[in-house]
Amino acid sequence: MALLTVGLGLLFFFSFFAFQIWMFSTLIASLVPLVPPGSNVEQMMAESIRWNWIIFGVGMVMFTIIVTITTVVISHRIYGPAYAIRKHLAAITRGEFEHRTHLRKNDEFKDVAQDLNHLSEILAAKGFPPDRV
Question: What's the pLDDT tens digit per position in 17-37?
Answer without folding.
Answer: 777 777 777 776 666 666 666
